[in-house]
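Handoff note, outgoing to incoming analyst
You'll be picking up this chain. Sequence as last confirmed:
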Amino acid sequence: MDNKRLAHLCGNLDGNLRQIESALGVSLVRRQEMFRITGPKAAAERVAKLLDTLYERARRALSPETLQLALVEAASELAAQPRSRKARAARVAAPAKAGDAAEPLVLRTRRADLAGRTPRQHEYLRHILSHDITFGLGPAGTGKTYLAVACAVDALERNSVQRIVLTRPAVEAGERLGFLPGDLNQKVDPYLRPLYDALYDLMGFDRVTKAFEKGLLEVAPLAFMRGRTLTNAFVILDEAQNTTPEQMKMFLTRIGFGSKCVVTGDPSQVDLPKSVTSGLVDAERVLAKVKGIAMTHFTSADVVRHPLVARIVEAYEARTAALSKSKGGAA
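Most recent structure output, in case you need it:
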């Protein structure tokens, strides 16, 4: 066993091992190159597999992102496993279906390792590939926007669409857009920056620049969509919780032939005035049973950022649930 790889696997003062213990509910004891894993059988087997995988990647120090994504994936696999023997036997006996989560979805982007990390992310990707309009709803850090942009880049690479159009509503999160310096483009640019960042990561700076010059990429505020018909395009509306119902209807009716649309947003982070209904929340109710539209609802279990992000989301969800319960009791 390579001692350098082993050191990278374990982390500083075995910090990586402590994270694995916390995330997967096991106890890890290391004696030189030997590991003793104590815990439920399924968890112990998954941790053993995870250690092998991380060791193969540990030619250099494991980044926090690499470790966290691996932990999210392992935890999701454990959660998806049937607990009873009868349920396990039924799953083994059942034939695999086309498009099943186990079937790998290969996307053509600069990130060769890009894939869904949780069952809902796999479901989201399948929905995008099989539906003309897909909604991704859920908390921050669940990959809603990033995976949508990855699917858009993949569609462009395969010539399934002629261009990518990315848009966001320019709504202030407790700030005032008018007081920002510069012209209109400079004022709205900060709102669109996360979309640029995803494009740079998935395509590279030079390719993104050339794609803009050729008209293959367009990033614009939602207000610029009115009156247009978007044909043969992959269109993404991000931060859709900050649209009004009228804006949402306007956007969805821009879609033309040969186009695919993805709408992403977090209904718990609406920056509109309290008297204004969120277009995303409204669309979730109105379009729930419309054929050809898919909706994926993410939870804190799908967060693939720092582990504290998932705990923060859970804490806020618990408070919201408690407040709703107290109001119901008072009524």
